[in-house]
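Chain A, query sequence.
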Amino acid sequence: MLAGGLLVSETHEPVMLAEIVELFAEIPDGVLLDATLGLAGHATAILRRHSGLRVVGIDQDDMAITNAQHVKTTLGADAARFDAFRGRFDDAARTLRAVGVEHLSGALFDLGVSSPQLDVAERGFSYRHEARLDMRMNRSAALSAWNIVNEYSVDALADLLQRNADERFAKRIATAIVAARPIDTTTQLAEIVVSAIPAATRRTGGHPAKRTFQALRIEVNSELDILPGALRDVMSMVTPGGRIAVLSYHSGEDRIVKQVMRDAETDHSQPNIATPYAHPSRTAPRAWRKVRVAKTPTSDEVRRNPRAASAKLRVMQRCEVSA
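Chain A, predicted structure.
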């Protein structure tokens, strides 16, 4: 919802909020990056819990940055420890260094689409609201969902549906989309997708167009392409005792997160920040370890907030090693 041009967040429940706040309660004082700021629900809760942290939020959506400016006015004495900058999360390391931040005590990535992007019809993200196809998180970007739906070939559409959403009926849907062009609105597209999927399959698994809209959103915003590098860049800035937490919402995202974290955990080639192992006969200890946390929301949370149902949380901690 919008109120005076600002996002209304009073009824918004950030996914796994209690778990996120708790896992960052133990990190050292310093700077925490919220790489996908959204409505700033996680950021402000962490800020209030941990008085030794400065929270820097980044988001490519201008609505999120406008909202962050409003949120800052509500924080009282804590406002001096909260800043927000516009940018994509793959540019987070450069943005941080540009404002004098070289090291992080923590980082949070809450991936996927935000509630305001889904709920504001004109953004064109949702199959439930009539709007022109759009789905751009950065509204100044050139590529929109309209371009993809109306300009990609059958094979290119089928490939992105399979790659970004594991869509079983990718070729059928792609063929139906191309045959129905031009397609201008979200509801037009949703109807075409529904008609392309066998009736028996449509009875289960939620709205039949859900995967198609997910796949298009990911393609428009290059979400999977930029994720591995963004995670590695930010992890390189985290100091010993610091943590990185990632909330993902579908299998493609989670596979990438899991692989990046596995690579970090098993990489013994790089010495720990605090312990430069220079002697060639000494092996550098692993720089990262997994933090055991609840990986999915509780059933109570899912009942309150159905959008949390597909969330998966993975957490790593930078190891502290004595010389």
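The mean pLDDT is 89. The CA atoms of residues 190 and 209 lie 5 Å apart.
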